[in-house]
Amino acid sequence: MLNDPMVLTPISDAPQAEPEKRVRDRGATEKAILNAAKALLAEEGFQNFGINAVARKTGCDKQLIYRYYGGLNGLVDAIGADLGTWVKDRIPEDTGGMFLLTYGDLMERLSLLFLQALRDDPLMRRIVAWEVSENTEQVRRLSEARSKALANWLERMRGSLTPPKGVDAVAVNAILIAAIQHIVLSASAGGQCAGLALKTPKDWEKAETALKRIVRGVYG
Amino acid sequence: MLNDPMVLTPISDAPQAEPEKRVRDRGATEKAILNAAKALLAEEGFQNFGINAVARKTGCDKQLIYRYYGGLNGLVDAIGADLGTWVKDRIPEDTGGMFLLTYGDLMERLSLLFLQALRDDPLMRRIVAWEVSENTEQVRRLSEARSKALANWLERMRGSLTPPKGVDAVAVNAILIAAIQHIVLSASAGGQCAGLALKTPKDWEKAETALKRIVRGVYG
DNA sequence: TTTATTTGTCACTCATCGGTGAGTAACAAC
DNA sequence: GTTGTTACTCACCGATGAGTGACAAATAAA
Description:
- Helix content of chain A is 65%, strand content 2%.
- Chain A has 220 residues and is mostly helical.
């Protein structure tokens, strides 16, 4: 008898702006939470990433995040699981009509593809920034998923091409990838990196030219 | 009469571990706050960097931070002011007994010096991580101070050497610096970067060798 | 229909944050 | 001493964070 909901209905008989037929569908809710989390991370970064913010963005109660994902950690894991498909979705597999005859051809192409893909994907940028900013269990798992996907992609694209003799390709490529990631992060955060402006397309052309030159310098 | 402090003294008559003759000295307190802030930033990163944390670390009331520095922004500015001297303190000016005959000689040397300096300075690492993670007024000021100091150092060390014709040295150097910064940040956060382990001295030798090769590749 | 389970909401605790106003303790000038 | 200034502390505010237990409502099972 107490708190009989019927006595409250007249209160809201004003024309509701959003009736929002929220169907009861766990699957849909889970997806909504995941998408909201990814969007939130992409837009706001990891600073304001938390249970409350995700729930707010999803438009549901945070309790559901605990129930369905076991808290923020589980949710981050779910994001990580999605990440495996990132490279596949984001980076073209074809060679853009080029014939990649040498390892240098390959790495030049891959560098530019990776640069572009990262520039185009705010979520991935946020994750990379997160990776270098703290070292928690959450980040570690995300990071692992990302690095694995990236390594697979590199390996797959490599085909039968081999790096020049006497060059530690793993180390060199790590540095190249580091450079690309940091350039993109810097640009995204402050529009420049070490005195090099990175705003206009022309700026980026300069950066790409320099990157190509560097790649060609090591790999010929 | 109310709240007479004398009635409370018996509570803390246990042997105090730190009597800490805190003399009343504004200058010393200001320094203590600044040092605590820098230490806190270096140790914990920017995540937990705030008024309360700094005050706790300093062992004083946060009110003093407002009074002496006008809040966290002013404190960050003070840290930034210190930063100008970083390069001078941290990176040796001499050439390590080498004769730097070419621009390639120079950049190889500078790259390794910068790498080492960054590896050795946790505060600077945190700041770099901060720079690529958010874009607030605080960070922008810190970032500016750092980048200015770095540019000055580069210019000073360059002397009369000039880059090879046809190479956009600004862009190339930006990428090199980006690579170094990211490599160090990655190592610091996760002990590896893009599949390259970065823990043991041997790991770092590999990275340095690769870096040298890259520098020589562009600059000869 | 009655019952049980799933789905979602609400209301709360506890901790910590940035920020502020008012008060206390030391020291200098008189 | 008394007075006034400076250095410093304390106690509180509102907001927001993570996390939890209880309850309402829709749906499925009986």
